[in-house]
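Model: You mentioned two targets. I'll fold them one after the other.
Researcher: Yes, keep them separate.
Model: Target one:
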Amino acid sequence: MPSLQSILEDPTTRAGRAFALTVQALIILSLVTFTIETLPHLSETARWWLYAVEVGTVAIFTVEYLLRIVVADHKLRFIFSFYGIVDLLAILPFYLATGLDLRSIRIVRVLRLFRILKLARYSAAMRRFHRAFDIAKEEIVLFLSAAGMMLYLSSVGIYYLESDAQPEAFGSVFHCLWWAVVTMTTVGYGDVYPITVGGRIFTFLVLMTGLGVVAVPTGIMASALTKVRKLEDDEAASLKEGEAAQVLTPDQEGVGTTSEKR
């Protein structure tokens, strides 16, 4: 009979897989009910059923959270870990809103959306993405720092080129930040645009730079995901080799040695 810890933390077993699929279904159900609640003119019956579903899912998530604390080897480490905080945020808004005027704390109800992060625990793709981020986090931080510097320099540059011609749109570096963000990300809303020759030439250079801003993090994460996939393949191969080595028992080894001597 599988242990409680294996059911909660090992989705490769039959019981663990059933538990993981059940929790995933409840997460999706909770998000669906949250979306339905935003519909206007819902009947009292519909609202009662939505609240009943919310109570049921919160009760199950609460039990799951408490059980994970019980089976954790280091309880405080789990409580303050990423998944521990996500599990807490998934149930905390319900308890904070109970018995209070929800109209004054709607932002607390929005925190229910943190439940979608619980899916990361049960998704192999999300776990792979998390490992890839760990591998590439230094490169990503370096890139974000460089992108922030480029964003600031673009704001300053367009300010000096366009502030005299369009003081309302480019009146300060802070005003120019919106233009720099839209231009560097190549979104191009067109609500704020340069009209001087120098400003247009500068915009062309910023747009060319913006193409790299989009492409560089994509390449970094793609390379990291490739490394993660290779690591997983190596781990799987090592596991298979270990299982194959255990198949040969000591008695069989003795028989094989005797046969070789003959």
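Model: Target two:
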Amino acid sequence: MTYDFALDKKSVISLIAGSVAIAALLFVAGLIVGRQWFGTDSVAVAHAAENERAALPTEPVLNEESASPPATPKAKPALPLPPKQAGEIPAEPAAPTAPVAVPGNVPPPQVVSEAATENADAAANAQPAESDYVTVQVGVFLDDKEAGRLLQQMESKGYRPSFFSGRDAESRQWYAVRIGVYSDKQQAANAAANFTKQEKLKAVVRPVESL
């Protein structure tokens, strides 16, 4: 018994066409699966990047010392005077020394009263110390490039910003952009409110020498 496996021309063409169709279907299926695979990976990477950005802090953690005003030093209690012995004569206050006349054109030295000294000390204490000055902070970043961009933006709008860098309570390096220096905290608060209203950016009052 013999079998005839000879194919005619029509069968050969049908076989080739079927093979081409199957190969095309496999190619299209591979493209679809690959696109879905890479699309899922890119979405996962994008979500991971967004979660990483959200995890970054937006404001520095301030030290408790800088957030709270310094404590006023307590005055030392006055020591009691020793009791007077019997028959002891109290000492009389010394009489003020009169100015001594100096021959020639040189005027005699002037005696400075205690009242004038107290007035001079009060005037010196009235002037605010350097640590009492505050400024308006319009932006703070962990990246110095972002702080530089905000600095240029403020300069282009006519402001005179300054650049400040410092570490917070967790030893992270921050870069701040600030505008103005004020000795009156209420005046600085009004300036910060006006800046926020005009530029639509958050502004806070901070000490000049710290975050």
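Researcher: Noted. Anything on target two?
Model: Confidence is low (pLDDT under 50) at residues 65-69.
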